[in-house]
Amino acid sequence: MDGYMHILLIVVFSLNTKWHIDNRFDGIAIPSKIPLYLQFAGGAYFLAREMAQVISMIALGIFRKWLLDVTNWLDMVVIFLVFMYG
Fold first, then answer.
1. Backbone angles phi and psi of 26, in degrees to 5
2. Alpha-carbon gap, residue 64 to 82, rounded angstroms
3. How far is the C-alpha of 32 from the C-alpha of 13, rounded, in Å?
4. What does the H/E/C string look like for the chain?
5. For residues 49 and 2, what is the distance between their CA atoms, to the nearest angstrom?
6. How confident is the model over 3-62, as pLDDT tens digits?
7. Which pLDDT score, from 0 to 100, does residue 24 have?
8. Which of 3, 15, 41, 84 is buried deepest, with most CB atoms within 10 A?
């Protein structure tokens, strides 16, 4: 599922970027809200996955291990950027 969501985010981010550039410089592009909603849905999926991981680590009493793992920080940066650029 993660792979599908990453592909989804790449596709909808490219569509949203193309619309934004066309709209900013030409002013004639008609936006479609569907790619924007899909981008937020992809970000919400990854956020829910990370929150489930955090809750399970807290329940096991090893939350510090989650904090010290660099890949978790990378995931959180990706989630932040998806929502910020959305």
1. -100, -35
2. 26
3. 13
4. CHHHHHHHHHHHHHHHHHHHHHHHHCCCCCCCHHHHHHHHHHHHHHHHHHHHHHHHHHHHCCHHHHHHCHHHHHHHHHHHHHHHHC
5. 10
6. 999 999 999 988 888 888 877 777 776 677 888 899 999 999 999 999 999 999 999 999
7. 77
8. 15
What is the pLDDT at residue 2?
Answer: 86
Query: Tens digits of per-residue pLDDT, 75-86?
Result: 999 999 999 988
Half-sphere exposure of 36 (CA within 13 A, CB side): 10
Tokens 């900013």 sit on residue: 24
List the one residue out of 20, 82, 21, 19 whose CA is nearest residue 49. 82
Distance CA 36, CA 77 (A): 19
Token readout for 49 is 């996955």
